[in-house]
Amino acid sequence: MAEPSTREQILVEARHCFAAQGFEGTSLNDIAAGVGIRRPSLLHHFDSKEAIYRQILSDALADWGDQTEAARTSESDGWELVDSIVAASFRYFVANPEIIVIVRREAMTDQSPLGFNLGVALRPYFRRAVTFFERQMDQGVFRRHDAENLVLTGYGALLTYFSDHVMLKGLVTDDPFSEASLEARFEHMRSFIRAALEPVKEAQ
User: Fold this and answer.
1) What is the fold, at CATH topology level, of the domain defined by 57-197?
2) Is 174 left (phi over 0), alpha (psi -120 to 50) or beta?
3) 106: CB partners within 8 A, 6+ apart
4) CATH 1.10.10.60 occupies which residues in the chain?
5) Least enclosed by CB within 10 Å: which of 2, 5, 59, 167?
6) Average pLDDT for residues 119-133, to the nearest whole number?
């Protein structure tokens, strides 16, 4: 495998710094030092801290979008499609804990360093999901819920487990991010979501 380029190393180190220290708490010198280069060398690849931050968020959104899109097949629908997308999202969050911290911080402020609005960026995905659930409910495939609140609940259940990692480690006895705990969490979520979606069977 080829060694990562300097540009790639800068982005990796910047993810570490932004997740640990926030945007304001991170300097270009911090990032350069972590890579083992000087600030002028860093500026050869990115002209500002904002440009690095923008690239990280853009890459993360594109990567997550690609992975969830790859989970779709032309035949999948109903629970099969929901299950595939939940699994793809869960795998992405497991593999990218620093991105989750950065995104969570963005979600809690209206003072983004880029004027970046996470809600606006995610809105197309949100509307697509809402439309899908409304259609499935109309067809009787899923139990009737308010589709917007349903998607928001799923978002919260997925994301907060990873974004609230410090609290979870103090809250539960076992390591919540061990392989066994993550597998148990995923299976619990799958069962919980499926139970919430299955239509209520009428009494005979």
Assistant:
1) Tetracycline Repressor; domain 2 (1.10.357)
2) beta
3) 57, 112, 116, 118
4) 1-47
5) 2
6) 91
The DSSP H or E segment spanning 189 is helix 179-197
Other C-beta atoms lying within 10 Å of the C-beta of residue 26? 21
Q: How far apart are CA 138 and CA 30, in angstroms?
A: 53
- Burial of residue 79 (CB within 10 Å: 0-12, 13-18, 19+) is middle
Q: What is the CATH number of domain 1-47?
A: 1.10.10.60
In this predicted structure, the answer to whether residue 204 has a pLDDT above a threshold of 50 is no
Q: What span, in angstroms and rounded, lies between the C-alpha atoms of 21 and 202?
A: 54
Domain with CATH 1.10.357.10 in the chain: 57-197
Scanning the structure block, which residue is given the tokens 């350069």? 32
pTM of the model: 0.85
